[in-house]
Design a protein that fits this description.
With about 375 residues, the chain is an alpha+beta fold. Helix content is about 45%, strand content about 10%. The model has no long low-confidence stretch (mean pLDDT about 95).
């Protein structure tokens, strides 16, 4: 467990002297702490520079996006201190601090009187989640996506993810290949679909957008009093991409009938009621900002983001569980099977999912 040394607390431009500091949250990538002065509070994070290797680029992305959001929120009459993250610079004017031991730290203003939900309990939760991420998309509509860095190169390059899987198959360092022949066959049977987004972004039939790339419910702060979605957080993976990446990742994580860590992965299905709730909220929030091709790609985003995640779990299983944290033998294989079962059920419900998108496209797409 990391602690926040005096060197770090003295580096940032706090409004007052820090009187207490302790760990908060359960994030798997960065270590997070809350620091208090008595009158104000801050979030201090140790940046995982093994995952985010170019910290300058990472923080340039975050500062650019949050500054743009702040201006948009002010123009709309909102509260920029609560509706977006606000970076606290060091006393030397930098958005992060590198301490003597080589670790990187950053600081945000703490947004008080908020709550985070870790799981979708009902369609209304998922509808609110969709509104939050669609508003994030709407607010950033004018920001030039090509000005952002790829904080994790090829993050949603699905053909590249598949190539890494095939390399793991050839190497089979852990002698696990014999137990996953069916899963490999599942992926290879869909190999012709994997470049759907890469090709369309390349030929510009889909526009390059700013995407969050981790659109889970617990990356939204809700107002404790009104329960209204207030602020999208965890901006480390904000990068250029296709809008369906965010839609699809939200469906993958929020709309299955079973959690990806289930002990019965083959029973995972798509909850069409949750799919409809998110589709309605997403297109209500930003449907008039999207192109027709983008809306038509949303179901593909749901399928391919799920398939890609399954490929990543399966690759990690073959390589010895070196990336994703596991709690039992075969955990990553079970996760992969859950994703693939969800993909198969999406395929079985393709007509129904497409009809739902078309239903709300007719209402919210302005053409």
């Amino acid at each position: 467990m990391f602690t926040v040394d005096k060197e770090i607390l003295e580096a940032f431009e706090f409004d007052g002297e820090i009187v207490s500091c302790g760990p908060v949250g359960n994030g798997l990538i960065n270590s997070t702490f809350r620091a208090d002065t008595g009158s104000r509070a801050y979030i201090i994070q140790k940046i995982n520079n093994k995952v985010f290797r170019d910290v300058d680029a990472l923080m340039e992305n975050i500062c650019g996006v949050t500054s743009y959001l702040r201006d948009k929120i002010i123009s709309a009459g909102g509260d920029p201190n609560r509706e977006t993250l606000n970076v606290i610079n060091t006393k030397n004017g930098f958005p992060y601090f590198r301490c003597k031991n080589g670790y990187y730290w950053r600081c945000y203003e703490f947004i008080s009187d908020t709550v985070v939900y870790n799981a979708v309990e009902c369609p209304d939760d998922f509808y609110s989640c969709a509104l939050a991420f669609s508003e994030f998309q709407r607010q950033l509509d004018g920001f030039p996506a090509d000005k952002l860095y790829e904080t994790i190169p090829d993050f949603h390059n699905t053909p590249d993810r598949c190539a890494k899987l095939m390399r793991a198959v050839r190497n089979d360092f852990c002698n696990r290949l014999e137990g996953v022949r069916d899963e490999i066959a599942f992926v290879t049977a869909r190999a012709g679909e994997l470049s759907y987004f890469v090709d369309r972004l390349c030929n510009r039939s889909l526009p390059l957008r700013i995407t969050h790339n981790d659109t889970k419910l617990n990356n939204i702060l809700f107002d404790k009093e009104t329960n209204k979605a207030l602020c999208v957080v965890d901006l480390d993976t904000v990068m250029p991409g296709a809008v369906a990446y965010d839609f699809g990742d939200a469906i993958r994580s929020g709309a299955p009938t079973l959690n990806e860590d289930t002990l019965t992965p083959y029973e995972t299905r798509i909850d069409l009621e949750l799919f409809e709730a998110f589709t309605k909220g997403f297109l209500e929030g930003c449907g008039d900002c999207l192109t027709e091709n983008e809306i038509d790609s949303l179901v593909w985003g749901s399928k391919l983001m799920t398939l890609e995640c399954g490929i990543r779990f399966l690759t990690d299983y073959l390589e010895g569980d070196v990336y994703f944290k596991t709690t039992r033998n075969g955990h990553n294989l079970s996760r992969a099977r859950s994703q693939f079962a969800l993909v198969a059920d999406m395929e079985n419900n393709w007509y129904e999912m497409t009809a739902i998108v078309e239903k709300y496209k007719k209402i919210y797409f302005k053409g």
